[in-house]
Design brief:
Elements lengths: L7 H12 L8 E2 L6 H11 L12 H20 L4 H27 L9 H12 L7 H13 L13 H6 L3 H9 L1 H12 L6 H20 L2 H13 L8 H5 L13 E2 L13 H6 L8 H7 L9 E2 L2 H10 L9 E2 L15
Helix pairs in contact: 3-4, 3-11, 4-5, 4-6, 4-11, 5-10, 8-15
Amino acid sequence: MVNSLFTPWKIKSIMGGVVGTVSRDSFEWTYTEEPHFSRRKEMLKKYPEIKKLMGHDNNMAMIMIAMVITQVITCYLIQDESWLTVLIVGYCFGGVVNHSMTLALHETGHNLPFGHSKPLRNRLIGFLGNCVIGVPISISFRRYHHDHHRYQGEDKLDPDIPSDLEGVLFRNRFTKMIWMILQPGFYAIRPFLKRPKVPCKMEFYNLLVQLIFDIAIIYFMNWKALAYLFFGTVLCMGIHPLAGHFISEHYLYAGNDEETYSYYGPYNYIAFNVGYHMEHHDFPNIPGPKLPLIRKIAPEYYDDLPSHDSFAAVVWDFIMNPRSGPFNRIKRPASKDPTTPDPWVM
């Protein structure tokens, strides 16, 4: 008689404990509307002074210009260093600056540096800030990110939701670590595969400006200087404390059933307050620097909600906790035919 310790069920159970196999094998489906529209309506009725926070913040543009200058100077200083030095500085410094820049581009995507009345200025500062990222993302991100707000959690419409294949393939600690490393690729490619849109004229302009900048860096410095920018962007969107915001924003954790979470730790100072994510989805037309004021005005809408206090802990828990994985997202049926195009607003 075979020892019961080695029955197939127990072997699977033992291996699951060793490698941390994810227990969830599907998304958490809901059939209610996304929560932020009703929250926004209720909060504005109770606290109309929140409207005074809406608008733009010109300081963002100045900060973005300073970040570009900082990165160009760093490219010049590092161009003759070893590849190991380039990688280390790219991960520890350049990537942090570039990750912060991607969050600045998130702000430009909402027209927050100059306001909705000056869309071209927002696009131009986006082009400039995008230069140090290494690849053109400013316009494409804006187009698909608006879908994330408009169709939060909706099947085939929200580009932020992982694919079923991601949930199936990345199911244990090792593969989840690989998923985090590859996160920049999934984040960039997923929208184009899920709901592709015809490229617009602004995307071609974005590409042209990026090519001119990249060629200038190579011509006046060298390939290593450009690699510093690109490596920093990719590395810090993977396994890096700042990349924890990709997980913290909408992934279910610790038995909570909220679909949006905030982070109130110190990284917000260099991340344009992206951690105030519940606040951002409630009021996407309020600039990042003013998001903490929403919580001060209406504390009862935020203080009792689950939140994060460490991006690094979010990354660690996502990889190590068998209850966490790509399927830890709330999904709802699509409200429209995904093949129907949306109007494009510059």
